[in-house]
Write a structure and sequence with these properties.
The complex is a heterodimer of chains A (275) and B (351). Chain A has a single domain, classed as MetI-like (MetI-like fold), CATH 1.10.3720.10. Chain A is mostly helical and 275 residues long. The longest helix of chain A has 33 residues. With 351 residues, chain B is an alpha+beta fold. Chain B folds into two domains: 227 residues, Rossmann fold, CATH 3.40.50.300; 104 residues, OB fold (Dihydrolipoamide Acetyltransferase, E2P) (Beta Barrel). In chain B, a hairpin with a 2-residue loop joins strand 4 and strand 5. The chains are: A mainly alpha (275), B alpha+beta (351). The interface between A and B is medium-sized, with 25 and 32 residues. The structure holds adenosine-5'-triphosphate (ATP) and magnesium ion.
């Protein structure tokens, strides 16, 4: 029993190490001085330093990490909240009234299967006409479209899980549609809404392609901004600074995931109807 | 409170006709029970009245107003669902108060009404729990509580006691009966439990395959069933049906030499119903019929026998337990003509 347990832990540890190696390497490199990076490739840091983070967090005339973070935050919030607002009533109408179930639902869900780059050129031209290029709103709207399929899928499942008797009971209790939706259906979809938000936010935050394509100066998101740090002072890639900026960029979605993790799982309908 | 009138109501799901030309008037303040075998359309009829299903044709009139086209929330009825349908994210208190809040009742009045309902249903100590943390019986009581805090035009109950144990079922039944008295409200109650139907109802509606078989007080239905279906549906054990004929003013029973005079109007007699308790067990040579005991059940106060009479089939009868009759014993069965229920070839009562 004991030796087998130990063996199991060793295997787990090796697997965890192998799978997380890139993360560890980035993290370690972020704390090495540029001199050490070229000299010492090991995971051991000889002289830990915060110099790379200082570089990243200092506003220079060319680079402003706070600006990128703010752009990402704004765009990711639009890109994750807007699909929820749109998908919630849509999911209800599809499940309970059957609207769009035959065509719209499969269509929207399959949107996810298409490589989004095929929208790039028409979108660029449309955005140029509408003045949405290089704006946080423009980027957010696009990210909302990226997130819509997942939001709709999660919410359709959540609404379908609610016993229809609950809605009938609410009608019998005198509730019209708005009260039914906001006081009964919405609270019961809470876990799905939180999941939608977390996944949507993370997807939006980490999006790179459209960020690169649709922004130039004002609305550059963190993912694109991070790449600017790779070659700060001309010459080769500054690995230390690059690692530090990636750590900074990865922190917000990571924190969000950790905070929300416990709320993502679990069903709300226990005790509603007899089993 | 209101009278509910149903006129020539039909309901089909696709090609399947589930409610067939039902007409019924439930007077104001009546306790009306729908009974019938599983799948006969009791829930569907109730849901039509509630507005949760839309009628294929016909009219529903509540309190003099045609509500056939109205949505459930405009009909002012309250309903207890077969499956409770409690709001799982709300506490018991919020569940009970939901309809009152929907109607924008002042908070003080809500608190008072919720407290009163909780007292009646003995839910006071659970008010702050969520439904998930309640037993089946407690959930059922919350579902009833949610219906009774309001003052609807009528109450609809769909098998509200089906998930309770025998003791709680009896208690809650008494509770509902007293509730009906104190509220003097029109109530429609669906069940397939005969005891519930007989004890609660002012009026019973027996349904079969989407049609009304008979409407009447429990006593009328039991004592003068309009057809063989109702006769056999109410009462336990179910009514014996004897293959009797009427000839020359006499009732002819196969395998019997007794001559019973046929009352007027029994000319078309094809079947005679006889309840087990109206059938006396006698010595083998005394009764109208005789046969051999094939099943003997000891019920404590009485003994229930199933007697094989050969020509008249198997007949159930009650006798006192002290006789200790056993399987294989030969017995006689005796009964009076006035205890027989005469039916014609279509199963319809003759007189
Ligand atoms: N939505 C529906 N679609 C198709 N058929 C239905 C639907 N609802 C009910 N039915 C059918 O209508 C008939 C009556 O159903 P209903 O639920 O009214 O029966 P019930 O008398 O309440 O039975 P139980 O005692 O089992 O609850 C059944 O044969 C059922 O299969
Ligand atoms: Mg039913």
């Amino acid at each position: 029993m004991k030796p087998r347990l130990t063996l199991r832990w060793i295997v787990f540890a090796i697997a965890a190490f192998v799978m997380n190696f890139p993360v560890l390497a980035t993290l370690v490199t972020a704390f090495k001085s540029s001199g050490e990076v070229s000299r010492n490739p090991s995971l051991w840091i000889e002289a830990p330093t915060l110099e790379n983070f200082a570089t990243v967090l200092t506003i220079s005339d060319r680079l402003n990490v706070y600006h990128y973070l703010w752009n990402s935050l704004a765009a990711a919030l639009i890109g994750s909240v807007l699909p929820m607002i749109v998908a919630f009533p849509m999911a209800w109408a599809m499940v309970r009234r059957g609207y769009g179930r035959a065509i719209l639902f499969p269509l929207v869900v399959n949107l996810r299967a298409l490589p989004l780059i095929i929208f790039a050129i028409p979108l660029y031209m449309m955005y140029a006409t509408l003045g949405l290029l290089d704006t946080r709103l423009g980027l957010g709207l696009l990210l909302a479209i990226v997130n819509l399929p997942l939001a709709l899928m999660l919410l359709v499942n959540a609404v379908a899980e609610i016993p229809v008797e609950l809605e009938e009971a609410a009608h019998m209790d005198g509730a019209r549609l708005p009260r039914l939706l906001f006081k009964v259906v919405l609270p019961l979809c809470r876990p799905a809404l939180i999941t939608t938000f977390v996944f949507g936010f993370i997807t939006a935050w980490n999006e790179f392609l459209f960020g690169l394509m649709l922004t130039t100066r004002e609305a550059v998101p963190m993912t694109v901004g991070a790449s600017f740090f790779f070659a700060t002072s001309g010459g080769g890639v500054q690995w230390g600074t690059a690692s530090a900026v990636m750590v900074v960029a990865a922190l917000p979605p990571l924190l969000l995931g950790l905070i929300m993790y416990r709320r993502i799982t679990g069903s709300m309908v226990a005790g509603a109807v007899k089993g | 409170m209101a009278e509910i009138r149903i006129e020539n109501l039909n309901k089909s799901f696709g090609a399947v006709s589930v409610i067939k030309d039902v007409s019924l008037t439930i007077p104001d303040g009546d306790f009306c029970v729908f009974v019938g075998p599983s799948g006969c359309g009791k829930s569907t009829l109730l849901r039509l009245i509630a507005g949760l299903e839309s009628a294929t044709s016909g009219r529903i009139v509540i309190d003099g107003r045609d509500v056939t086209a109205l949505e459930p929330y405009d009909r002012h009825l309250s309903m207890v669902f077969q499956s409770y349908a409690l709001y799982p994210h709300m506490t018991v208190k919020e569940n009970i108060a939901f309809a009152l809040r929907t109607a924008k009742t002042p908070e003080a009045a809500i608190a008072e009404k919720v407290a009163k309902a909780a007292r009646i249903l003995r839910l006071e100590s659970y008010l702050d729990r969520k439904p998930g943390a309640l037993s089946g019986g407690q959930r059922q009581r919350v579902a009833i509580g949610r219906a009774i805090v309001r003052e609807p035009k009528a109450f609809l109950f769909d098998e509200p006691l089906s998930n309770l144990d025998a003791a709680l079922r009896a208690d809650t039944r008494v509770e509902i009966a007293s509730l009906h008295k104190s509220l003097a409200a029109t109530m429609i109650y669906v069940t397939h439990d005969q005891i519930e139907a007989m004890t609660l109802a002012d009026r019973i509606v027996v349904l079969n395959e989407g049609q009304i078989m008979q409407v009447g007080t429990p006593r009328e239905l039991y004592e003068r069933p309009a057809n063989v279906f109702v006769a056999q549906f109410l009462g336990s054990p179910k009514m014996n049906i004897l293959p009797a004929r009427a000839a020359e003013g006499m009732i002819v029973l196969p395998g019997s030499s007794s001559r019973l005079a046929a009352p007027a109007g029994w000319g078309g007699l094809v079947a005679a119903g006889l309840r087990a308790e109206d059938c006396t067990v006698t010595g083998p040579d005394n009764g109208v019929l005789s046969g051999i005991v094939v099943v003997s059940e000891y019920h404590g106060a009485a003994q229930q026998l199933l007697v094989d009479t050969d020509a008249c089939g198997r007949i159930s009868a009650f006798t006192t337990a002290d006789r200790d009759l056993r399987v294989g014993d030969r017995v006689g069965l005796d009964f009076a003509t006035e205890k027989l229920h005469p039916f014609d070839g279509g199963g319809v009562r003759l007189a």
